[in-house]
Amino acid sequence: MIKGLIVRSTGSWYDVKLADNTQVQCRMIGKFRLEGKKLTNPVAVGDYVYVEREAGQDTAVIKEIIDRKNYVIRQSPRKKHFMHIIASNMDQAMLMVTIRSPKLKQGFIDRFLLMTEPYDIPVYILFNKCDVYNEEDILIYNHLKNIYEDIGYNCLLVSSLEKKGLNDVAEILKSKTTLLSGQSGVGKSSLINALYPGTSLRTKELSDFTGKGQHTTTFAEMFEVDQGTRIIDTPGIKTLSYNHLEVEDVAHNFKEFFDASSGCKFDNCQHRNEPKCAVKHKIETGEISILRYQNYLQIIEEIEDQNYWELNTEY
Ligand SMILES: Nc1nc2c(ncn2[C@@H]2O[C@H](COP(=O)(O)OP(=O)(O)OP(=O)(O)O)[C@@H](O)[C@H]2O)c(=O)[nH]1
Ligand SMILES: [Mg+2]
Ligand SMILES: [Zn+2]
């Protein structure tokens, strides 16, 4: 069997890069589960696999997935009871957002961090399109930067269009495998094109005055832009629902809540109406952000109200 790396996944076919840098198209046979959950995609970009060539053909079959060091997984936006692996085996993630076009959705950043936190994947938050920010937008940026840098996520102000702040981004990417993710239309593919003009990814004008991006990137794809520097471009995220989780999972993965929770009176404190809750105390003193807390409450309320998903395809 030959070892390879999944660099592109289109649903039923996978592009696998082999040690000699050639690529082979592979299929996967059989059904796979992860942590007892059904998956829409058994193999993800970033997976190392063993493949076997198919006799008399150019294609190969994936026989085995090598254990993942980490992965980022979400509930499938179309099939509620299925999970979808966005990518695996990354060194870090870049979450791209923008304050303008498309407007940053309240809670989006915190929902994203809930996917990377279980594996402690370092996350950089890139605020793109700074070329169109007005003074108020810059104030919003500074406010969010304070909140997120305080809990360990570096924030950067960039413009893929005007190539602002890109040297710092290139420095962060160097010699690492990075997942690039965010809402549709924020400029993920544009960033890769701006950094590495050779890649020429498809990007698109924003669809219309609603400011909502249309999905231009439809499949996750890994680009080796330089020896050892790999970026995984992914399709835009529309919704992130968490009703497959338990309330405790959410509480454990809001990291500053988790750190504070050793001071709560109850071991299983959900930081709501319980007495002597250290998290609520820290919110009162301003040590924990009220914005994070509101987003936390909304997620756990959705989990408790399992009908939420049916009623609201967009949170
Ligand atoms: N003003 C401004 N526009 C930008 C910037 N970066 C990207 N855009 C524009 O934003 C639009 C969407 O860019 P894409 O790179 O396709 O966005 P994406 O995040 O890859 O979108 P999906 O593939 O759908 O997830 C395009 O019209 C880009 O030209 C920027 O820094 N400033
Ligand atoms: Mg794209
Ligand atoms: Zn508590």
Task: Record the SSE blueprint.
Layout: E1 2-9, E2 14-18, E3 23-28, E4 33-34, E5 37-39, E6 48-53, E7 60-65, E8 71-75, E9 82-88, E10 92-97, H1 108-116, E11 123-127, H2 135-150, E12 154-157, H3 166-173, E13 177-182, H4 188-195, E14 221-226, E15 229-233, H5 247-253, H6 255-260, H7 278-284, H8 290-304, H9 308-311
Parallel strand pairs: 3-7, 5-9, 10-11, 10-13, 11-12, 13-15
Antiparallel strand pairs: 1-2, 1-6, 2-3, 4-5, 6-7, 8-9, 14-15
Structure overview:
The strands form 3 sheets. This protein has a 6-stranded mixed sheet with strand order 12-11-10-13-15-14, with helices on both faces. It has a 5-stranded mixed barrel with strand order 1-2-3-7-6. Strands 4-5-9-8 form a 4-stranded mixed sheet, with no helix packed on it. It has helices spanning 108-116, 135-150, 166-173, 188-195, 247-253, 255-260, 278-284, 290-304, 308-311; strands spanning 2-9, 14-18, 23-28, 33-34, 37-39, 48-53, 60-65, 71-75, 82-88, 92-97, 123-127, 154-157, 177-182, 221-226, 229-233. The longest helix is centred in the middle third of the chain and has 16 residues, at 135-150. The chain is globular and about 70 Å long. The termini are far apart. The chain folds into 3 domains: 2-71, OB fold (Dihydrolipoamide Acetyltransferase, E2P); 91-233, Rossmann fold (3-Layer(aba) Sandwich); 247-311, Ribonucleotide Reductase Protein R1, domain 1. The protein has 9 helices and 15 strands. With 315 residues, it is α/β, with parallel strands linked by helices. 25% of the residues lie in helices and 25% in strands. It binds guanosine-5'-triphosphate (GTP), magnesium ion and zinc ion. Residues 188-189, 216-217, 233 line the site of magnesium ion (MG). Guanosine-5'-triphosphate binds at residues 128-129, 131-132, 159-161, 184-190, 203-206, 213, 215-217, 235-236.
